[in-house]
Task: structure prediction
Amino acid sequence: MADYKGSVKADWCPGCGNFAQLSAIPMALSQLGIAPENSVIVSGIGCSSNMPEYMRAYGFHGIHGRSLPAAQAIKWANKELTVIAYGGDGDGYNEGTQHLYHGARRNSDITYIVSDNQIFGLTTGQASPTSRLGMKTKTTPDGNLEPPINPLSMALSAGATFVAREFSGDVKHLVETIKKAIQHKGFSFIDVFSPCVTYNKDNTYDFFRERVYKLEDQKHDTSDIMAAFAKAAEWGDKIPIGILYQREDKILSDVDPVLHENLISTPVKKLVPADIEEFL
Amino acid sequence: MDSNEVIIRVGGAAGDGVQSAGLIIAKVFSRNGLHTNTYNYYQSIIRGGQSWYQIRASSHVVKNQGDGLDILIALNKDALERHTNPDINEGGASPLNGIAIYDSSISGFTKHEGMKFCEMPLSEIAQKYSKNTLLKNTVAIGAVFGYLSMDFEILAGVIRDQFGGKGKIAEQNVEAAREGYGHFVEKYGKSSKTLTGSGKKYYLISGGESAGLGAIRNGLKAYFGYPMTPASSIIHYLASHSKDFKVFVKITEDEISAITMAIGANYAGIRAMTGSSGGGFALMTEAVGMAAEMEIPIVIYEAQRAGPSTGLPTKTEQGDLLQVIGASQGDFPKAIFSPRNVEETYYMTGEALNLAEKYQMPVFLMVDLYLAEHYETVEKFNLEPDMKKAPLATGDEKDYKRYQFTKDGISLRAIPGTKNLMHNEDSDEHDEKGDVVSDAVTDPQIRIRIMEKRMKKLDTYMKEITPTPTYKMDDAEYAVVLWGSTQGAVEEAVDLLRKKGIKIGAIEVNKPFPVNPDIAKLTKGKKKVIFVENNYTGQLRRIISSEIQVTGDLITKYDGECFYPGALANEIEARIKE
Result:
């Protein structure tokens, strides 16, 4: 097992859902035999986005909402790397929405994991894009007036080729899905319910434990996009976790000849007079 | 009027083929070994409106589109009236005092004095060869070169290249041009001008293309952008050569993505660039600071157009200097280049890539619409790579620290994939190792040292900054200070004033930030210092006066047009005499 344990101790609140992911991501990478030097964790800003600080891998802890553009470009520059973009629901579904949409549309060959706690944590508890309607927060004292977005149906409609949902309360299941996501060729997306024990008193561990069920226990066809949309819309007494949808499709390096080789290793173009003849 | 020089203007509506006609004319000159300079006056419209394309050519070096107008091709009545009317002075362009070539169908306009109206059956001739109405432009182009007694075969070659070889369309155009050539000479005779080229073909290239080419020469592997005039000429060039040059070109969902992707690619170890105009660059602002804090190289091509906001999308201005200097929160090292012409753009783009990589900081290449889109001849390009690859950690380093404190402020980068050197690069403040110092315990001592480490890179850079270029400053009593693309107009204005006995020269700032202190020495003791800027407030003057306390008079232009040497010389002279 490769050692992904970082030297800096995570300073999330005790019980934070992010800890489960801090265990699960290294475990998945390690079980797949991916060396820490070939792994890049790219994040934005928010509690969960501090993840790269705590792992022994290459970390890119950038700015709010912008993990996906950096992650995609790192992969285009060096396709031998395993690239995971990581962040929260505020980071990914507010400022980063268009990057999720277009990253999925491009089928960029990276994995995107969102730690979805349905609240802004680092800024001390404001309504996020996945906060439920009516939720009382510092910015919504009379209850949230805007309905939450559905990240799964958004990813599906954008053309994502791997869409899953997980729960920080089930690390074993989370590890298996992260492994499949990393192995998936193309854009793999996992929305992980990750309870915020400090600011979200609605969507707690118990809330999810009572509701989640595993898709593989049902006859769910992951190749059926309409079935996936139906599962994405399921919310209430029962909430599915696991892989909703998976499809094999072309990635950019299949169709853009410049990416057939690995950009980082291609020799630098040596200009010759024929290259500038067009200007004569 | 200079008998070794000609200025031609093609005027019409958008969609009339004004630009392609202009480019054919320019290329005939550059292939004859004549120095050529062009200017494209157009609007943000696909069909209609009015636009014109000016071409100046000479056996001597021409540094801008020039004053005066010798030959007009008017593609419609509006163009004929505009460019022959001495009272219309668009952007400083002179009215015709030579010949106007136009189709016989145009009538009912005022024939001003001092010019020759050469009506021609352009459409009638064109229709003999094809139903395509644009063929009449080719007939008119033929007429121009007949008038100038230039070798028809060079024109025929350019036309064939333009229309894809020896096919039917190419030959229709060649024959239409040949008839235009003969018809004009027979009816109106030849010009007394003799333009003798060097016999050696010159490169005819735009600033945007030159930047792209210069970047390739120094190892560019990826370019990320979003369409915005006038930053598109570089993307179009790179995209159309993506496969030949093995450069990855990606049009992104927005400018934020474009710069973040370029930073990500640089982080991963390849040279990558992004670019936009002021509006798009405004969106990139936050990521500029990210690159600086994380110490990741990034080159940003910023092609200015007239603002604020959407402003004049197809017009030139130098209004973004303060925006670029001030882009992103906090203090951090950055450098701004402002190449003065197309040739310099080629070398400075390469230099920007080297510098960004060495100092692991943002480097800006500021051009403007005028420089990015107009064409100039370049006699020769040095194609030998000048790529100064900064060293990278290999994995054998003991106690590797990504942001190690060093004398020059520069620390060794380790890129992903390097064994043993895993570390985190963070937009939060961090220590030498990259560990964040902003969250649990903020350590003010580390903050001070890491700030000083980053800023020290600028001190190191200032030791190697190239001297500010000058023009005729040796005996100058008066000095003009310019930056970027106004070089051509200023130098020709200086020449005009020197002919009048005024001892004047120019200080040509091509690296506006950080301010080079040599400007203080260059301006010292001058009777008058005059800043010439294509903006309203004199942004360069503001920055130079605040940094090194050098100031002076200010001549501005903010009508969306570039400077013209004659008008500029008059304005400078008036200031001198004040």
About this structure: The first strand of chain B starts at residue 5 and ends at 14. Residues 11 and 79 of chain B are 5 Å apart (CA to CA).
